[in-house]
Amino acid sequence: MAPSAYCLGGVQVWLNDLVAALQADPHWQVKVALPSGAWHRLDRYLEVFPRLPAVQLMNPTGSAEGRRRSITAVLLRERPDLVVGVNIADLYAAVRRARSRGFRGRVVLSLHALAADLIADVAAEVDLLDAVIATNKLSCRLLERLAGVPAGRVFYAPYGVVLPSPVVAGGAAVPRPSAPLRIAWVGRLEAAQKRVADLAGILRQLDAVGIPFHLTVAGDGPERDSLARALAPWLKAGVASMPGALSGPQLLQEVYATHQVLLITSSWETGPIVAWEAMAAGLAVVSSAYLGSGLEGALRHGCNALLFPVGDMAAAADALKRVSDLEVRAGLVNAGRRLVQERYSADAAHRVWCESFAQVLALPPRGPVLPEPPLPPSGRLERLVGPGLAEALRRRLSRGFRHTSPGGEWPHTAHGDADEQGLFDLAAELDHDA
Questions:
Q1: What is the DSSP letter of 375?
Q2: CB-based burial of residue 38 (10 Å sphere; 0-12 exposed, 13-18 middle, 19+ buried)?
Q3: How far apart are CA 37 and CA 385, in angstroms?
Q4: Would you say 187 and 277 are in contact if contact means Cβ atoms under 8 Å apart?
């Protein structure tokens, strides 16, 4: 069960690829429950991922009670042995409601971010959840420390990528040493996590040391306009480009096949998938030493990547200068490809996910769980007649809420006020100790 508001991103690629792997395995029968509404455009989502075996979640009133009813109905109709929640906060209250009506399926939360709100969700549902599966080893440690999940119910299962065949030799494709270094930055154009504002400073540093380059920024997001203004001198000079969000095939053909380096500037990551994609395609990776890279132990400075401190633009430029050397780059490319083959290939990752699901099903059942928490009134009607009757009246009168964002229509968390700084302080301590 996952949102359908966003069509491009690492979680969406992961979900699509994992479902395809489960469909190909006779041991599993899989369906994907996806919301449909004003912001969660299921029709558009299925145009991007047409092979998903979708089950529609309808909520004509837009109310919290409507969300719980919709999810409960799907659970009782489909009777899954295992339900995996991905950023659908109302799932867990709905499971508690369905428990009172005979539903006995196992429940897993799949964690894809270093986010205090999501970990607070886990802590609130720890009596209900049979397990949590996280894509990063630091996330696993935080779940034990902050959410109180027993170690035996925390599973690690990474992202995986399809190895191009034949491998695109991006790192070896430069015909002459004097050619500009072609650098790719791929992801959501966002400031807090992805730190896109660092890109202009890095380019200034590259100009200062006289390294010829071309930067391609592939992605979209809230900082697109501000980034375009910051990169204006280089965009005008033709040494930077912003083609927007690209599909997987477009990334492979237009970016990975034509660039030599992937640049990552993030403050934290639970992958990222783009790093493994780029390595598989033959690019060298120059990355910030983001939170999540320490315990994961995948990116090794000077072996399969060059790392720099988060926000250190001079160090980033120095790493890019080093990787412009053909011999240095070739060594990183070869080691990066081996890393993906061994740990992050689609086959290896899917095997771990399937093993995790099987282990969850084999765990002893949880004891009695708390009942569904009552819904706080969201308006005058609920205060007068309660959420159940209010929902019936709204449906009968075809009235409902008008939400202003995807998170209002189908919230991804129930704990938006969680202590983000406290999480990052502990995360830094744990990741540094690695």
A1: P
A2: middle
A3: 26
A4: no
The per-residue b/e assignment along 209-229, b for 16 or more CB within 10 angstroms, e otherwise, is: eebebbbbbbbbbebbeebee
- Residues 74, 94: Cα–Cα separation, whole Å: 10
- Alpha helices by DSSP H, 89-167: 91-99, 116-124, 137-146
The reported pLDDT for the residue numbered 169 is 47
Write down the CATH number for the domain with range 10-159+349-429.
3.40.50.2000
Pairing of β 240-241 and β 213-218:
parallel
Rounded to an integer, what distance in angstroms lies between the CA atom of residue 369 and that of residue 379?
29
- Residue 434 has what pLDDT? 61
Fold of 170-344: Rossmann fold (3.40.50)
- pLDDT surpassing 70 at residue 170: no
Check whether 149 has a pLDDT greater than 50: yes
User: In the chain, where does the domain assigned CATH 3.40.50.2000 lie?
Assistant: 10-159+349-429, 170-344
pLDDT at position 175, please?
46
Q: What is the mean pLDDT of the chain?
A: 93
Q: Which amino acid is at 123?
A: A
- First-to-last alpha carbon distance for the chain, in angstroms, is 33
CA distance 67 to 409: 9
